[in-house]
Amino acid sequence: MLLIKICKSISFMHLLKNLKMHSLVLLILNIYIVYVLQMIIDQRIPEGGHGYVLEMLYNSVILLLLSTSLLNYFYRDNKKSLYLFIGSLCIVFSEVISVAYLYVTKQELLDFFALSLALLAFYFFYQQSKINNTQRSSNAIVLE
Prior knowledge:
Number of domains: 1
Order of helices and strands: HHHHHH
Mean pLDDT: 85
Number of helices: 6
Distance between the termini: 30 Å
Largest sheet: none
Structural class: mainly alpha
Strand content: under 5%
């Protein structure tokens, strides 16, 4: 739902016109990270099963959220979008650490870091929800 909310507030024509290279690099990085995560998960979950498909879809959506929130920050360049990006970054790192905890090694320290990052993410999401969205882009002048 957060991904949908971000996508509604971004002008994709502006992104395609001004942030082509950023979008391309983010797309390549997302594909690579999903590939690496799936190589880790392949060892535990048989390919083609429902769990495999759900895990792949979930990882793709989480990384798409991170990329979209970064593009939103580039587009708006304000404190609210920065908090949203940092929260998304914490969520992604939390999920990557959770994959390591679940599929590589069951060390409690990994679980603690994953939970701490998830809580930190929700703190940033809460902080950004209290801020009004003032749009600042390279073409707009913001009166403060």
